[in-house]
Amino acid sequence: MVLGFEIALIILSLLMILLVLLHKGKGGGLSDMFGGGAASTGGGSAVAERNLDRITVIIGIGWFACIVVLGLLLKTN
After folding, report:
1. CB 50 within 8 A of CB 3
2. Beta carbons within 8 Å of 63's beta carbon, 6+ residues apart
3. Is the Cα dihedral 52, 14, 16, 61 positive or negative?
4. How far is CA 15 from CA 9, 55, 59, in A?
5. pTM (whole model) above 0.85
6. How far apart are CA 70 and CA 75, in angstroms?
């Protein structure tokens, strides 16, 4: 059971990294340094950005829950 949650945590962590990198830069940060500032000035779909936000939040909640469950499972062993 612990192994399953560890694998899920690795997958969720990789998804979180990918989803965070997909977000548009809000300006002034590392995204501008690597050319994100020029790309963020172009028009993007607001619906796609909202869906990306929702998916990121859902994956983040799953990631957090997986960490909590793993902590509880490892504490009882």
Report:
1. no
2. 9, 12, 13, 16
3. positive
4. 10, 10, 8
5. no
6. 8
Give the tens place of pLDDT for each residue, 10-28.
999 999 999 999 887 766 5
Q: Considering just the CA atoms, what is the radius of gyration of the chain in Å?
A: 16
45-76 per-position pLDDT tens digit: 788 888 999 999 999 999 999 999 999 999 98
| Integer Cα distance of 73 and 38 in angstroms | 46
Residues, the chain = 77
Which value, to the nearest 10 degrees, does the dihedral of the CA atoms of residues 44, 35, 11, 55 take? -20
